[in-house]
Amino acid sequence: MTAKYAKQAQRSQRKSLQRKFEVCVLLRDLCAAFATFAVKIVFVFATSRTALFLLLISISTPLLAWGPEGHQIVADIARSRLTEVTRRHIRELLGNDDLAAISTWADEIRPQRPETAGWHFVDIPMSANGFSEQRDCYRPDEKHPQTQADHHNCVVDRIEIFERILADRNAPQADHIEALKFLVHFVADLHQPMHAIGEARGGNDIHISEFGTPRCGNGPCNLHSAWDLGLIEHTRRSEPAYVSHLERLISRQSVEREADGTPETWANESFHLAQRVWLNDGGAVDEGYFRNNIGSLDERLALAGLRLAALLNQALGK
User: Fold this and answer.
1) CA dist 317 to 72, 86, 87, 196, Å?
2) Vertex 122: Cα angle to 183 and 297 (nearest 5)
3) How many whole angstroms separate alpha carbon 260 and alpha carbon 311?
């Protein structure tokens, strides 16, 4: 009976998170169309403080990678490929093995953990050939004192650090739990191409029109947010439908053959993809852009899930 109730609780939690995401998407679209009435719309539809918080993230904070749905999709792809030993260890840490339920934790704690802000991305210069740890992971900033001593202030190094912590049997359980939560999120982050390029703050400062509108929520549309949310939303797929779509893609195109490499390799893949799909200020994410690039986005989501599973199985599957 306990297991039955636990599964019901997990399903309820996932459905609740998905409903909140759908509310946020609806609100963002409505705000773009009726900006004058944005405040009224928020209070009509945001029926809880949590929904309002998620709304504000989706329309005001374009520095997050993927939206909640993108992170959940990656987590679901990974979960289906965990070994039984890995699942057991995850259940010991979390009480269940629902990776999607923790997939956005690293974004949620950023206001309380400002030192983690730079861990979500790596700013590779547009003109570079690829990733350089010395250049890209030490970025001291006087406005953020915690960066002065952090020589691993990038997502590439942080994945490697948290993988070692998760695999260390002598590390405290609290460290294992935190490492697992960061890894589920950061592996997905690194596969978002705009999180591997430094130009215009990863595309945040590239203002675009998105499917005919220059406004996304309460501000101008930008290239980064189009890859976080806009392209995924435009497919009109639910999370379960998207996972099924990617499972077919993995099977049909043998994507698993490419699911190896290191975080540095993954960063370079994302960086070179960002170079290819880059738009100049004033550009358009339209139907043509969507058709040309949605396949690449799908592949990044699929690879993120496959690689996350392999990483967790390596760290916990012994």
Assistant:
1) 22, 5, 8, 29
2) 75
3) 9
Give, for all 318 residues of the chain, the pLDDT tens digit: 445 445 555 555 555 555 544 444 444 444 434 433 333 333 333 333 334 334 434 433 445 567 899 999 999 999 999 999 999 999 999 999 999 999 999 999 999 999 999 999 999 999 999 999 999 999 998 888 889 999 999 999 999 999 999 999 999 999 999 999 999 999 999 999 999 999 999 999 999 999 999 999 899 999 999 999 999 999 999 999 999 999 999 999 889 888 999 999 999 999 999 999 999 999 999 999 999 999 999 999 999 999 999 999 999 998
| Residue 273: closest CA among 254, 246, 301, 249 | 301
Which uninterrupted H or E stretch holds 149? none
CA-CA-CA-CA dihedral for 222, 112, 162, 67, to nearest 10: -30
d(CA 169, CA 131): 31
Nearest Cα residue to 195 out of 118, 251, 256, 252: 118
Nearest to 155 by CA among 274, 272, 314, 270: 270
* DSSP E strand stretches across 148-270: 209-210, 215-216, 219-220
| SS3 call for 312 | helix
CATH code that applies to domain 63-316: 1.10.575.10
Domain spans, the chain: 1-60, 63-316
Closest by Cα among 159, 165, 156 to 183: 159
CA dihedral angle for residue 21, residue 27, residue 33, residue 39, rounded to 10 degrees: -150
